[in-house]
Design a protein that fits this description.
This protein has one domain: Orthogonal Bundle (Cytochrome p450). 52% of the residues lie in helices and 10% in strands. It has 18 helices and 12 strands. The strands form 4 sheets. A 5-stranded mixed sheet has the order 1-2-8-5-3, sandwiched between helices. It has a 3-stranded antiparallel sheet with strand order 4-12-9. A two-stranded antiparallel sheet has the order 6-7. Helix 9 crosses helix 13. Bound molecules: protoporphyrin IX containing FE. Protoporphyrin IX containing FE binds next to helix 6, helix 9, helix 13 and helix 18.
Length: 457
């Protein structure tokens, strides 16, 4: 019956448009297991070879059309974005407290607008000195460790930068505990298809979510009393009023802070891990970054305590290209999924209402059509402007990541201190990549670091 239902949709036509070729596989599960086991790139490559650039499948309980061209990205994220809602698998959306009607609620729309506006360039620029302090604090704690599990340690950095940036909060035992609870939630998202059964890690992750929400509420209440002169995004959210002049409720605020922090720290720490992996494997590029750019910058400082400035940040073109190339190859967000709110005809492809459309960023970023020698780590490719809509690590359109400038600035500061002060070697064996909730290295990249003897400025 399930197959019949799907097929009857497929042969229905709207102005001559047709659902693309593909495979439904098993009822409800569809091809989710294959997608999960193979990872997006292999899954996309095999299906594209068989069915063409746009194909249909069944993922996470939904009929899904997968597209991976710049035209499709533009259509889905920009020109036709109003016909779609952001989609997450139910088990993930429950952990995130995400509702599909979310963007339609008036207050939620105001909050979203505030978040995008609050992460402005000026704020990022003003935070360089603070991020500088946090980077030194975290890196100096690595010196005593015989084995640094990069993901675990860069997480501390990204989490505390995000907390300072969003809520003006300094590191404390309470924030470390909050970070551990978050980490448990992220870990639970790695597993495909989860059910809330007592004793399972998913059930425990939902309990941890409750704890993080409590910590978030505590932060909100503390911030209300602080009356800080420097306004952070949380202050701006607290000032919001609905159409009746009522302030945003604490319930909404704590969920918003929860989601905001989630977006802010996990992807960023994963980015650092990938950068360390690629630089470790490309010693020549590492030496160029170190000698030609970062050492020169450090030598220009009057004392070792001199923090980086915004001028320094914008004078790191080589390191910036390393970050771009890492984002392209690592594909931290390997795909984006949207759900159609109406029947849509996209260039003869029929997208029925309720179906999902998945944009395969992983394939777009690694396609030889748009990127020469795509699997080669070659930051110099970014010396020339990339072809339009072929590089979207932060998405595009109204939901484009508002934290992208902060993420890049953090990475530049972090790399500055890492390469000028330390050398490192990989001490773990390759364990492969996990793709959910983001593309990251299994094992978290264990390294051993040594302080450089020439660091005597
Ligand atoms: C390397 C680091 C990061 C990557 C790769 C990344 C990637 C992304 C992507 C791809 C999206 C769009 C999702 C979609 O449209 O479905 C997104 C959204 C978002 N990101 Fe980031 N992000 C990063 C860092 C950050 C940081 C540092 C912050 C906050 C300070 C942040 C806050 C957000 C928020 C709030 C959204 C939701 C925007 C909306 O729904 O309108 N992200 N991010």
């Amino acid at each position: 019956l399930w197959r019949k239902n799907c097929n009857s949709v497929q042969i229905n036509k709207l102005h001559g448009a047709q659902v693309p070729k593909g495979n439904w596989s098993l009822p409800w599960i569809g091809e989710s297991l294959t997608f999960y086991n193979q990872g997006p790139y292999q899954f996309y490559s095999q299906h594209i070879a068989r069915y063409g650039r746009t194909f249909r499948t069944h993922l996470m309980g939904n009929p899904t059309i997968v597209m991976s061209t710049p035209e499709a990205a533009k259509f889905l994220l920009t020109t036709q974005q109003k016909s779609f809602l952001v989609f997450m698998p139910p088990s993930v959306s429950r952990l995130m407290g995400f509702r599909s009607t979310y963007k339609q609620e008036a207050m939620a729309a105001k909050m979203n607008k505030t978040i995008h506006e609050s992460l402005h360039f000026e704020l990022v620029r003003n935070k360089v000195a603070k991020v500088d302090r946090i980077a030194r604090w975290v890196l100096s704690s690595w010196e005593k460790q015989p084995c640094v599990v990069t993901y675990e340690e860069t997480k501390k950095f990204a989490f505390h930068v995000a907390l300072d940036f969003i809520a003006g909060m300094a590191p404390s035992p309470e924030t470390m505990k909050m970070m551990d609870d978050y980490s448990y939630i992220v870990k639970a998202m790695e597993t495909f298809m989860q059910f809330n059964i007592p004793g399972t890690s998913y059930h425990k992750a939902l309990e941890k979510r409750q704890k993080v929400l409590e910590s978030s509420l505590h932060i909100v209440k503390k911030r209300r009393l602080e009356q800080s002169k420097e306004k952070c995004p949380l202050d701006l959210l607290m000032e919001l009023e609905d159409d009746n002049g009522d302030k945003i409720s604490d319930d909404l605020l704590q969920v918003q802070l929860f989601q905001f922090m989630f977006g802010a720290f996990h992807s960023t720490s994963v980015l650092f891990v990938w950068i360390l992996k690629f630089l470790g494997e490309n010693q020549l590029i590492l030496q160029q970054v170190k000698v030609a750019e970062q050492d020169t910058l450090r030598i220009g400082k009057t004392s070792p305590e001199d923090p980086l400035s915004w001028t320094d940040i914008v004078n790191m073109p080589l390191t910036s290209r390393v970050i771009q190339e890492t984002l392209r190859i690592a594909n931290i967000a390997p795909f984006m999924t949207r759900q159609a709110t109406e029947d849509i005809n996209y260039n003869g492809i029929w997208i029925p209402k309720g179906w999902c459309v998945q944009l395969g960023l992983h394939y777009l970023h690694l396609s030889p059509e748009y990127h020469k020698d795509p699997l080669k780590f070659d930051p110099s490719r970014f010396q020339a402007p990339e072809k339009p809509v072929t590089f979207l690590p932060f998405g595009s359109g109204v939901t484009m990541c508002p934290g992208r400038e902060l993420a890049k600035m953090e990475a530049l500061v972090f790399l500055h201190y890492l390469v000028t002060t330390y050398s490192w070697e990989n001490i773990g064996s390759e364990k492969g990549i996990k793709y959910f909730p983001t593309s990251s290295l299994k094992g978290g990249l264990p390294i051993k670091i040594s302080k450089l003897s020439e660091y005597v400025i």
